[in-house]
Amino acid sequence: MNFALPSLTASQMFGQKTIRPIGAAILSGIAFFQDTLIAIDSPKGYLLQIDPATDNTKILNPHQSKEFTDVTGLAIWEDTLWVTRGNSVYLCKWNSWGLEHFVTLPYPANGIAVWESTVYVSCQKLGDIVIFN
Asked: What domain of life does the native source organism fall in (predicted)?
């Protein structure tokens, strides 16, 4: 499998299109799920499903938004959503939206990535990416 990024000129990178999800205040995390973008509107706690072709935006968690307030990182692996909030990492099954605690770091967790059973959490204050196998 080749993960090499294509060579793009500045106009190709920045001149294509800007997605503007209507009603979103601040997008703090973004990931792909199937053929849509998933983003978190951190101040409102809304998990947004965005169609990149039309900019149509759907709130996936209208009744659980309080749990997602102040989330800064977002990752999806298979049917599991992973998020960071404060010093902690949480996960939930897709469409359940009930966050389950995974781990707490000594400092704020800024971002997250997941590959198979490995979870990568960035922590700016530590200056590291913490790996959980």
From this structure: Bacteria
Model pTM? 0.84
User: Residue ranges of the alpha helices (H) in the chain?
Assistant: 10-14, 65-68
17 phi and psi, to 5 degrees? Answer: -165, 150
Q: Which amino acid is at 34?
A: Q
Q: Quick check: 88 and 109 in contact, CB under 8 A?
A: yes
Report which of 88, 15, 93 is spatially closest to residue 60, judged by C-alpha positions. Answer: 93
The domains of the chain, with CATH numbers, are: 25-132 (2.120.10.30)
